Amino acid sequence: MTGPRLFSPDDAARLIAVPGETDDKYRRGVLGVVTGSVEYPGAAVLGVEAALRTGVGMVRYLGPARATDLVLQRRPEAVTEPGRVQAWLLGSGMPVARTGSELEPAARERLHHALDSGRPLVLDAGALDLAAATDAPAVIVPHAGELARLLRLEREAVHADPLGSARAAAERFGVTVLLKGHTTHVVGATGEELVARSAPAWLATAGAGDALAGILGALVATHADAVVDDAALLGRLAAAAAVIHGLAAQRASAGGPFTVLDLCRELGPTVAQLVKYRPAV
């Protein structure tokens, strides 16, 4: 059995959708975002920021009042009314949806509307437990502790065998799995195994996962119709998001510490560099 394939910057570059002269904001992709909570409104800000800077026609943010205010202060171009959406990012900074008791009725309604939409899903943090509650193409983005909880394992077991743990989750829940870490492991719903290693160690900081989810949400939204036709594409998009995330972190770090907003600021230049030098298809 061959090992997982290293996903390169050239691989990621091939998955960046560059808009054409006739593309409008809807053709470029609309990402619906249901993230953030009263306790963690910053997760919403970081995910929206990352998605917009990665490249998407519109972000439609639907969340609690305080998070909505902060999102609009940071990114006034975000739309905060329901409407057309091509893909969804759910759960960052939210309580675990499985328990239900900690979710406000409005949040529960937004999540289930997204799950029932049939559009591709990126499930993070509080929405990870919803992976088995939808037939839509879905990718989950847990860290080791979250994956251990989903699989009812000890965290040390996931650290000891990250690829095997990601594979087990993909098989159990029928979704694509992106297991976050210094080395990112991706297992597609069809079994394809990929790794990404572009991230500096300085990236181990609060909010980094929220930005990664936003990057992935943008990539999925710009390829949403193709994902509906071929769910295997989600694995490659997940690996591409991890590569872009890591390369932007390298630029933001320059060998030292940085903030997640510093990383987000480098996403546009990172995408531009990848597009400029990407190999011919």
Low-pLDDT residue spans: none
Summed up, the domain count is 1
| Name of the top-level CATH class | Alpha Beta
The CATH architecture assignment turns out to be 3-Layer(aba) Sandwich
CATH superfamily: Ribokinase
Quick check: average pLDDT?
94
Q: What's the arrangement of strands in the largest beta sheet?
A: 1-9-8-7-6-5-4-2-3
Q: Characterize the largest beta sheet: strand count, sense, and whether it forms a barrel.
A: 9 strands, mixed
Helix tally equals: 12
The Rg value, from CA coordinates, equals: 17 Å
Instruction: Report, as a whole number of angstroms, the end-to-end distance.
Output: 28 Å
Defining key terms:
single chain; 281 residues; alpha/beta; UDP-N-acetylmuramoyl-L-alanine:D-glutamate ligase; 9-stranded mixed β-sheet; 12 helices; 9 strands
